[in-house]
Amino acid sequence: MRAQFVLSEIGVGLRRNLTMTFAVVVSVALSLALFGGALLMREQVSSMKTYWYDKVNVSIFLCNKNDAKDVPKCAKGAVTAEQKKEIKADLEKMEAVQKPVLFENVDEAYKHYQEQFGDSPMAGNITPDQMQESFRVKLKDPQKYKVVATAFAGRDGVQSVQDQRSILDNLFGLMNGMNVAAIFLMGLMLVIALMLIVNTVRVSAFSRRRETGIMRLVGASGFYIQMPFIMEAAFAGLIGGLLACVILIAARYFLIDGGLALQEKLNLIDFIGWDAVLTKLPLVIAIGLLMPAVAALFALRKYLKV
């Protein structure tokens, strides 16, 4: 009997405040979708770092005969065979460097350039003798790039030392910035949702003040009186959480598998799988259910004297 009464009161409350309940559902859905998206973005960045940092190289570019006029470090002329031998030997002695150390001559460099930029208008103006020889170094710990850079940057025959990780850091920095923006927007939507929940509970409590007064007179407990209002908020939050899950699933499918099909267009990126999305859904639903219920409980303490 009591359960039937609570359920009937929930139905009455939802019908009386249909517009505000709809606003709560939408706000909760958007805020939780942004919350789940921020979690997935952080996991995507972490996955990409693990994938790419394991593959990046440190490139030591050597002076060629064309650098003598334009590059002060190569003023002494092109790198000599003896200098190349010494650089390779010193690289192989370093603990931070994985073996073997790869050497790329001008012909190999020109071939790789043509493979990557062969369609560029400038490609026809580049000749093999303009390319640079280089050592491709893989580090055991990508964070120790400065060890190699310090040892070889000012050395005779070395034009420059470049770390491919610095290029990826710019990309990851951009993605982290987008993640922060999503979290900020999520916080804003969450505040709006909580304000709507509080106002909805206040309106619902005010519209049923006669019923609650009668219930107090017949000896109903405070928790029993508050339960329908809390359940209303929890129900609206649950619907919002379920909608947020639908948004996350649809976004993952549209962006990666279908629609934009980034998985096919950017096959060099290790995108997160469906398991990463599905493991976040229970958390989204739990927050969607508990957050409005707790907000309603605190609102009732202030606005419903029981």
UniProtKB/TrEMBL annotation:
The keyword Secreted does not apply. It comes from the Bacteria. The chain crosses the membrane at residues 21-41, 180-201, 233-256, 276-300. It is a multi-pass membrane protein. Keywords: Cell cycle, Cell division, Cell membrane, Membrane, Transmembrane, Transmembrane helix. The keyword Kinase does not apply. InterPro entries: ABC3_permease_C, FtsX, FtsX_actino, FtsX_ECD. Residues 183-302 form the ABC3 transporter permease C-terminal domain. Residues 56-161 form the FtsX extracellular domain. It is found in: Cell membrane. NCBIfam families: FtsX_actino (NF038346). Belongs to the ABC-4 integral membrane protein family. FtsX subfamily. Part of the ABC transporter FtsEX involved in cellular division. Forms a membrane-associated complex with FtsE. This is Cell division protein FtsX. It comes from [Kitasatospora] papulosa.
